[in-house]
Here is the input.
Amino acid sequence: MNEDSEFWNSAREQLNELCVKVGLDQTPELPSLGIMISAPAGTTLWSSSYALVLLWPCSGSDHISIERAAAQGQAWFDEVLVRNERLSPGSPIDGYLVLAIPEAPEAYAREEIRRLELSAQVCRKHMIWPSLPVDYNYEPGLWQRVADITVLGLPDSAAPSGNELQWPELDSEAQALWAELSTLGVNGTILRHEGPLNARN
Here is the structure.
């Protein structure tokens, strides 16, 4: 692996752009945990009141390197999440571990990636890697799958968020259905609209 954190700058910048949009701020420095696991060069942490996102560079794209990095990153991140929950009791914080691998994984490693990403133990896990010229959306410096990270993959908002709740504009059909739901309840509305179907069964 390139030990120089400059190698991971484009991944960090792309993650940061999406983190900022959902209210996650990059921490100026990593916490000192006093555990045996050292964060690799390029490790970056973003935080908010509801979530933490950790970029964890991986030494290789083979399944052994990926598995090792996932285990170390998860153990390190677990310490951070536990510490944050102690500081804010009663406020659950979601964790998202982003493993950055230096190149697209070989086909035989894809099953390991799928297994890791389906595991919700300690935190959610996602894998990203640099784009290649053969990729349909290739751009130099682009990292694949960044927008797939659950907490970051939100569509751009058409309007700025605010503190006040706003009800959507309803057309006449939606207003009529809302009135039925308010007066008849869910079951009554379903029976009214699906009564003929039930009668046939």
